[in-house]
Write a sequence for this structure.
């Protein structure tokens, strides 16, 4: 699941206009209403996942983040207007990502965002489609010792003595 979330945050940052970047610092992200559709069956997960992650200064500029798109992936749509966005990305089988297509739609301000994403993986003959709702809000400065994300416990790692 974290692989999918890590894919979405750069797309959101890329969608933000440069005058309205996401605030740098620690964010809490909540994923809920996740549903997987495979072979004509719907499988809701029933889980809510919480993750902490840090948006660093070098990652807050949408044009820099956008240029970091994975090799063998292209952005086919990037619509930004009045705090709303739609981003569509497609990746070839050579890409090192767990999806073929991803669509992210939502709204944002510098201190929060809400989005719904749809990820298509599998093969064209047997696709697997995952949908989920994500919301996030700015918490404050990042802990001194931090990774890109923390466990869902919401606690920062202990400082080594």
């Amino acid at each position: 699941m974290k692989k999918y979330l890590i894919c979405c945050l750069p797309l959101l940052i890329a969608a933000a206009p440069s005058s309205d970047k996401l605030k740098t610092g620690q964010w809490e992200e909540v994923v809920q209403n996740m549903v997987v559709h495979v072979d004509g069956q719907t499988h809701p997960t029933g889980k809510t996942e919480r993750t902490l992650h840090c948006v660093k200064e070098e990652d807050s500029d949408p044009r820099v983040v956008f240029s970091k798109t994975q090799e063998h992936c292209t952005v086919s749509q990037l619509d930004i207007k009045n705090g709303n966005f739609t981003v569509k990305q497609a990746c070839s089988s050579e890409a090192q990502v767990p999806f073929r297509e991803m669509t992210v739609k939502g709204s944002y301000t510098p201190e929060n965002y809400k989005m719904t994403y749809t990820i298509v993986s599998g093969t064209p003959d047997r696709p697997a489609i995952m949908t989920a709702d994500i919301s996030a809000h700015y918490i404050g400065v990042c802990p001194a010792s931090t990774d890109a994300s923390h466990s869902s416990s919401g606690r920062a790692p202990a400082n080594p003595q």
